[in-house]
Write a structure and sequence with these properties.
142 residues; alpha+beta; four-stranded antiparallel β-sheet
């Protein structure tokens, strides 16, 4: 009786050989796919977030420089460009003096930055995501 129980158990376990290897391969493949996704998509998403901060900081520094120089737009441009260039971004057009929602003067800046990853650079329909652009304006508090 004992040998038949062992044979029955062995027969059931015999069918389960190799399942651990399959599971390990699936987990390994999933980890590789996730790793590739993080290294290719992560920098592009981070770039979208970072360019907004760069635009906001450049507009703020431009507004402060404009106020401290008593209306010198070149001082505002120089201060904004320093922030933008330190972050390896580019100024789109020029900084501008605009009216904000309350009618006060504000410095407006539009910035762009390109972050290339292999996947986004090589796949045509993803290529437009490598360039991030953002605008910001900062009110000049006289």
């Amino acid at each position: 009786m004992r040998s038949s129980e062992t044979a029955g158990l062995g027969g059931r376990l015999k069918d389960e050989r190799g399942q651990a290897l399959g599971l390990i391969l699936k987990i390994g493949l999933a980890a590789i796919v996730l790793g590739i996704a993080l290294t290719q998509v992560g920098p592009v998403v981070f770039n979208q977030i970072q360019v907004r901060k760069i635009a906001k900081d450049a507009a703020f520094e431009g507004a402060v420089a404009y106020k401290n120089s008593r209306g010198d737009i070149n001082a505002a441009r120089k201060a904004a460009l320093k922030i933008i260039e330190d972050e390896d971004a580019r100024l789109v057009g020029d900084i501008a003096l605009v009216k904000d929602d309350s009618g006060r003067q504000a410095v407006s800046v539009t910035v762009r930055k390109i972050r290339r990853t292999w996947l986004f650079y090589r796949v045509d329909f993803l290529a437009h995501y490598i360039e991030a652009s953002a605008s910001a304006q900062e009110t000049i508090n006289w």
